[in-house]
Amino acid sequence: MVNAGNNNFFYGKGNEYQLGTGFFVHHRNVLAVKKLEFVSDRVSYLVLRGHWCNILVLNVHAPSEEKSDDSKDCFYVELEQVSYNFSKYHMKILLGNFNAKVEGENIFKPAIGYDSLHQDNDDNGVRIVNFATSKNLAVTSTMLPHRNFHKYTWISPDGKTHNQIDHVLIYRTWHSSILDV
Fold first, then answer.
1. Is 20 a member of any domain?
2. Model confidence, pTM
3. How far apart are CA 137 and CA 173, in angstroms?
4. Can you list the positions of beta strands (E) in 5-155?
5. Total structural domains in the chain?
6. What are the pLDDT digits (tens) for 62-76?
């Protein structure tokens, strides 16, 4: 843990400047942290004590598009194992770098909204849509209207390519709890 202004920064497994996940927790909320675990260099989670239920926040860094299918499959297996080790009564929020371009096509409703930046899915986009659909999740980062320049989560070094590859997923029963992404 590192103090950073009014926040505490928790950072786990990973090597310098590559992979790894972490959490900034405001100093007022540190006492609500019930559990923090860094499962691997791609998945970590934080359990917060909530008013009505505990809140499980999974932070992820998915393999990029050019990685092997095996590494992508392993990531989603790990993600599923971690998220289902917890009570169904936890509010579960999955967020982070899914490295996925997701389109807002009608066939993916209600898991995907109409406000995605992209017109086509890439392979990682198909994977996140399949995962969300099979687990009754909503990709809320595609459901809230924003101007396109507010949707960018990655910009190429030359500044010409803009992508929305970071996403926030939540179980559909809780999706109204997300006010903005």
1. no
2. 0.85
3. 9
4. 7-11, 22-26, 33-38, 43-48, 55-61, 91-97, 137-139, 154-155
5. 1
6. 999 999 999 999 999
